[in-house]
Amino acid sequence: MSTVEVSKNHAARSKVSPRTPFKYLVVIEPLGLLYGSSGRFLSPENLVGRSGTSFPPSTATLSGLFASSYKDEEIQDLMLAGPFWGITDEVRGKEQNFYVPTPRNYLVKDGKIRHKLTAVWQYVDEQGKNVYHWLDENKQSPVDKFESNTWLAIEQWDEPKEVKKAPWKFLPHLHPRLELNERRVVRETEGGSLFLENSVQLNPETCLVYLSNTELKDGWYRFGGEGHMVDVTCRALTANITELLHSKMQKSFALIAPGVWGSNRLSYRSPVYLQKSDREKYLKENPESDDRQVWSVEALLTERPIPFRYRLGNRVGVSLCGSTYRQQSEPEAQQVKGDRGEPPKLLSRGRYAVPAGSVYVLTEPLDKSWQEWPDEWFPQEGPSLKRWGCGLALPLPSAFDSPTREET
Fold it and tell me: What local confidence, expressed as pLDDT, does residue 403 receive?
C-alpha cells in the first residue's frame, strides 16, 4: 500500500484561525499611472528592457495602507487577499462581480474554455505512489497552443464559460533628475540622474480589487512605488461572494492567490507540520506513514514557482504587527537613513510561491473553507502569511471532486 493511500488530512483536528472572515471588498482606482516593478532597478548604463516586472501590487503593498491608518495592535488579525481586478460598474453592482486567476485545468483559446481537464489514474510507480495524468472529457491529452494569464469572472466560478485578459499595459519611461537652477540633467559626477520607471496604465473602466476583513477608510492614498495616487473605496461583501468564500474545499480546489508553504527557509508545494510535536502526533496516529504534509495530495496541476518577497516598515521602538525582528536603536537608524531621512524597510527572506490557478486534488476531503485554515499551516516570518491571503483557494465544481481510474 502506498504512502499516499494511508495518509490522512487532519484539518478537523487543527486549530481554527483566530482571524475574522472577509467582510469587505477594497476597490482601488488609479488616478493616472501605477508602478509596475519590484526589486531590482536599471542602472544609467543599462536602460534596456524591464527589470523586476511585478503587477498587480501584492497584498503586502495594500497592508501598508492599513498600517498607516491603524495602530499595530488594531490589525494583529488583519487578513487580506488578492490581487484581483474588475470592471468598475460590475464591482459596484448588486452581484459585485470581479475577476480571479483561471484554474489551470481549464484550457483557453480565443477567450473560450475549450477543454476541462481532470486527473485520471494511470498506474502505481516503483515507490508505490499513484500516478495521474490530466486528460480532457474524451480521456485525451489536448495538443495545441492555449492562452495563459487569463482571468475568470467570480460569478462564473461554478459554471465557467469564458475568460478575459488583463486590462493593463506597461509604459516604461525615463525620469531625469534636473539641476536646481537649470533645466538640464544633473551631472553623473553628482550621483547620476536617470531612472527608468516601469509604469502601468490601467483601462479607465477597470479597477484593482482585494478582499479584507478590516475596513479601510475611503480616500486618496499613495499606493506602490514612485508615490502614485489611487482612489480607494471599501464596500461590504455581498451575500453571494461571502457564501462562495465559506465553501468547503472538499477533494479538489484551485488557488486564486499565490501560495507559500513550508518553513521559513524551505518552500513546499503544500503545507507541512512545522513543529516537531505536531509531526510526532501525526506519525503516532499513522504509524505506516512518514509524510510531513498536512494534506495528502493525490494530484497537482501547476507551473513553475514564482518569487515571493515583501518589505516591512522599520519604525524605531515600535513592534511590527507581532514581528520577531530586532528593532533598530535611534543611533543605528541615524546611521542608515536614506535620502528621505527614513530608516530602510525590512526585507523578508526570498521565497518561492505556488502560482495562482494551481489545482489540487486530495486523497481525503478537506472539510474547511480557506478562512478556517489555522495559522499554523502558513509560514510565519514576522506576520503569518495568512495575513496576506497566502494560497486563497476555492473549491472546483463537483465534476472534479476526485480522480478517476482509467479502465485497463
Answer: 55
Question: Is the omega angle on the peptide bond into residue 258 within 30 degrees of 0, that is, cis?
Answer: no
The type of residue at 317 is G
pLDDT higher than 70, residue 401: no
278: its cell numbers: 505536531
- Digit-coded pLDDT (tens) for 67-120: 889 988 899 899 999 999 999 999 998 889 999 999 999 999 999 999 999 999
pLDDT > 50? residue 27: yes
- For 21, which DSSP code? P
- CA 386/CA 377 separation, integer angstroms: 9
Cα torsion through 196, 201, 39, 349, rounded to 10: 170
- Domain segments of the chain as ranges: 1-21+112-146+246-310+348-408, 22-103+152-243
Q: How far apart are CA 172 and CA 175, in angstroms?
A: 10
Q: CA–CA separation, 278 vs 270, rounded Å? A: 16
Q: In terms of DSSP bridges, do strands 404-405 and 118-124 run parallel, antiparallel, or are they unpaired?
A: parallel
The Cα 120–Cα 404 span in angstroms is 5
3-state helix, strand, coil in the chain (%, to 5): 20, 35, 50
Could you please report the per-residue DSSP string of 149-191?
Answer: SEEEEGGGSSS--BEEE-SEEEEEEEEEPBPSSSSSBPPGGGT
- Listed in sequence order, the residues at least 6 apart from 194 whose beta carbon sits closer than 8 Å to its beta carbon are 44, 47, 174, 175, 176, 177, 185
Residue 382 predicted with pLDDT over 50: yes
Q: Which three-class secondary structure string do you get for 346-373? A: EECCCEEEECCCCEEEEEEEECCCHHHC
Residue pair 157/256 in contact by the 8 Å Cβ criterion: no
Cell numbers describing residue 7 = 495518509
Which residue matches cell numbers 553623473? 188
293-341 pLDDT per residue, tens: 788 898 999 999 998 887 776 544 333 333 333 333 344 344 444 444 5
Q: What confidence tens digit (pLDDT) does each residue in 264-281 have?
A: 777 889 998 766 655 566
The answer to whether the pTM exceeds 0.85 is no
